[in-house]
Amino acid sequence: MLTVPHDQVARNQQLKDEQHNVRAFIEESATSKLRCKKMSDDATLPTRAHDTDAGWDLYSSVHRIIAPSKRGLIDTGISMEIPEGYAGLIWPRSGLAVKDGIDVFAGVIDSGYRGEIKVCLFNSSQLYIKIQKGDRVAQILFQEVPKMMMAVEVDELNESQRGGNGFGSSGS
CA 89, 82, 58 angle in degrees (round to 5)? Predict the structure, then answer.
């Protein structure tokens, strides 16, 4: 009969406990609920059509008309409590972008912000675009933000394969 040394038994138990803790963390993260507050009666909480969708739809709480080649700031009537270590990124809805030429300008919501989420839409078309209360106008994705320190000034940076080649450097 094979006997396992006591320290190996302890290591195996520690590994099993760590795996359990990781699984519990992943399950908790997957079911975490984002705290949202309606700031107006016309507000609609963000929704997703499918559990696998990356973005949550944001809805207009106002009527707006956006002229051709102009921007419009759209109220959503909601605020959010984004967890520390995350940011909300506001992106265009693909249907509005393709069909109507609507894009999103700006769109980083910091975890400490508790004011109303507003969406800056840009109308790239030559038509007036009508936004109605309850229209889905953008989507918000939540992304983990690594903590970085920018405290060291240097005279030179380390070389990289790309170097300083910018726009268009990888071909058209």
Answer: 50
What is the CATH code for 35-144? 2.70.40.10
13 vs 3, 4, 18, 26, 27, CA distance in Å? 16, 13, 9, 20, 21
Give the residues across from 1 on adjacent strands. Answer: none
Q: Report pLDDT digits (tens) over 109-129.
A: 999 999 999 999 999 999 999
Alpha-carbon gap, residue 71 to 160, rounded angstroms:
39
Taking the model in full, what pTM does it have?
Answer: 0.74
Other Cβ atoms within 10 Å of 57 Cβ, number? 18
How far is Cα 46 from Cα 68, in angstroms, rounded to an integer? 27
C-beta of residue 103 within 8 angstroms of C-beta of residue 92:
yes
The domains of the chain are located at 1-32, 35-144
